[in-house]
Write a structure and sequence with these properties.
Shape: globular
Largest sheet: 6 strands, mixed
Distance between the termini: 69 Å
Strand content: 15-25%
Strand order of the largest sheet: 1-6-5-4-2-3
Order of helices and strands: HEHHEEHEEEH
Number of domains: 1
Structural class: alpha/beta
Number of helices: 5
Radius of gyration: 22 Å
CATH architecture: 2-Layer Sandwich
CATH class: Alpha Beta
CATH topology: Chloramphenicol Acetyltransferase
Number of strands: 6
CATH superfamily: Nonribosomal peptide synthetase, condensation domain
Length: about 240
């Protein structure tokens, strides 16, 4: 009789086990599903406060913001080969160099600090007021090279001109400053406010990339890691991305 009761309980036990395994599988699939659902929507600018995945990349908070004299810099110019790779990819993809550089910044953050969304003030010509965008920072498993560069293209092309960033009062820790082909004032420290500025400009045919940072909010080692990973992120994107259909 005891044996009969044991076997009669077996189907219920099996059903419970299957249910538990299904729940566990769902738990591990959730982060991937979330990124898959939100990435298409986050690929365009939207309400800054609405981003549940927004992340902080500074080592420390600084309540009073950047103070004069705190600015430090890590210079990491692209070599001739990588500069040519950047220009060739921009031509082949029908994009601009700053779009590819912004995509590489997103990939760099994902590789060094983790995945999420970072608020970035963007200046495209070295003269205009910053426009606030939200940059998706995902690794290649979540967003391939083609999707990453086209995300950056959409973010920049759709950034509203009447929605300024830091100068309009909404703080972003990061400034992406594409000075372009005019290297004037490239040695000038950044204005007060941003914890990190990626400043890119042409100098003697090469693309220079300077990482200005607030030494009260960033350790130099963190910014050096950004500078070291950036070329690897860029070469991955420029070599693997394909034009949109």
């Amino acid at each position: 009789m005891g044996s009969g009761n044991h076997y009669s309980d077996a189907p219920a036990f099996i059903d419970m086990t299957v249910t538990v395994l299904a729940l566990v599988s769902h738990f591990w699939d959730t982060p991937r599903s979330v990124f898959a659902m939100v990435a298409p929507h986050l690929a365009t600018p939207h309400d800054f406060a609405a981003s549940a995945l927004r992340m902080r990349i500074t080592d420390r908070d600084e309540a009073l913001g950047t103070q004069l004299g705190n600015a430090d810099k890590v210079s990491a110019p692209l070599d001739t080969v990588l500069t040519l790779e950047l220009d060739g990819a921009a031509f082949a993809l029908g994009m601009t160099a700053d779009e590819l550089l912004l995509a590489a910044l997103g990939r760099t953050v994902a590789r060094t600090m983790g995945e999420g969304v970072v608020a970035v003030d963007v200046v495209r010509d070295g003269r205009s007021a910053p426009a606030l965008v939200e940059l998706i920072c995902l690794g290649e498993r979540q967003l391939d090279a083609t999707a990453m560069v086209h995300m950056a293209h959409r973010v920049l092309s759709e950034a509203p001109a009447d929605r300024p960033g830091y100068f309009g009062g909404a703080a972003a820790d990061v400034l992406f400053n594409y000075v372009g082909t005019t290297p004037a004032h490239t040695a000038t420290p950044p204005l007060v406010g941003h914890a990190l500025e990626l400043r890119a400009y042409r100098n003697g045919g090469l693309m220079e990339v300077d990482w200005w940072f607030d030494s009260h909010r960033f350790d130099r080692a963190t910014v050096q890691e950004f500078a070291e990973q950036f070329p690897f992120a860029l070469i991955e994107l420029t070599s693997e991305a394909a034009p949109s259909a």
